[in-house]
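Workshop exercise sheet. Pairs work together: one partner reads the sequence aloud, the other fills in the structure field after running the prediction. Swap roles for the next sheet.
Pair: D.N. / O.F.
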Amino acid sequence: MKSIFKREFSFWVLLLSQFLFLIYFGDKIPTEFPTHWDFNGNPDSYSNKYTFPILNTIIYLVLLFIPKLDPRKESYSLFSDSYLKIRFFLTFAFTLIFYGICLRYFGISISEPKMIFIFVLFIFTIIGNYMRNFRPNYFVGIRTPWTLENETVWKKTHELGGKLFFYNGIIGIILCFLLDEKNLPYIVITLILTASVIPVIYSYVYYQKIKNNSP
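Structure field:
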């Protein structure tokens, strides 16, 4: 129990801070909280101000308990450190997005869509950095019929996917500072799709190569 408390304490601080922030500054944060923006950077969809912290908490709990539900749960022990860091950076990034959106209510003007793109790409970069450490499982990583069938295909696919996630994330973050908001959605979507689709295709091609070369 003590080890769990020590491991998860930083997560609990981040999550709880959002709820305490809303309670303490409740009079400054309106009930309707922006959750989506148009291509001009203007909010066009709203939710209750507690939605974001609640969603962040749900994501934390899902990722915390996924290893216990996975039929290949023993694999997580082989990349537990990487998985812990990814969980933390996800919680950290979503918490920063929440506080970044709140800045508008304290007279601080920032580009909220651009900020969200930067943090999403930051998450992409972090995942890419640790992806090569992933071991075969049913919930985390590039899970195709071919990576789950063959451990070598899994390893090679995640080596490629890790590089694409990492470098596409870095490129995207740099472009966020160089381009205007109107062009960013297309660029970010292209970078994410490229990093996501190519490893899937590669896993099939590499699996077929191994299959055809096997005696």
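Discussion prompt: The radius of gyration is 20 Å. What would you look at next?
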